[in-house]
Amino acid sequence: MKHKNKTKSAVGIKYQEGDKQAPKIIAKGFGDLAEEIIALAKQSGVLVHEDPYLSEFLARLDLGQEIPEQLYHVIAELIAFSYVLQDKFPESWAASHNKVATKA
Questions:
Q1: What domains lie within the chain, and their CATH numbers?
Q2: Which run of H or E residues covers position 74?
Q3: Which of 23, 50, 51, 98 could form a disulfide with 15 if both were Cys (CB 3.0 to 4.6 A apart)?
Q4: How far, in Å, CA of 61 to CA of 87, rounded?
Q5: Is the CB of residue 81 less than 8 Å from the CB of residue 96?
Q6: CA separation for the pair 60, 68 (Å, rounded)
Q7: Is the pTM of this model over 0.70?
Q8: Measuring CA to CA, which residue among 27, 33, 31 is closest to residue 59?
Q9: Residue 66 per-residue DSSP state
């Protein structure tokens, strides 16, 4: 089934390894502003995951708001996947698994 949302939305979330809080909404926009957010993110080396359903849901949140608990698993998977794509692994992975090589 195709998503019928005519206006593109973009939402930026921020999470720093070691944060004690959930990721927060740091940017959001629709239409041309969404395109600008995506372009700036890519230019800055920020990985972009385009999912219209997730974006539409996150766009309902306010700037500075933490993502809701119902999305922890989804966002955690995206963050973990982005780490793998960047060849970065939390030190705790190497310590607990002894199979993951981390860059020094």
A1: 9-97 (3.40.1690.10)
A2: helix 72-85
A3: 23
A4: 31
A5: no
A6: 11
A7: no
A8: 27
A9: B
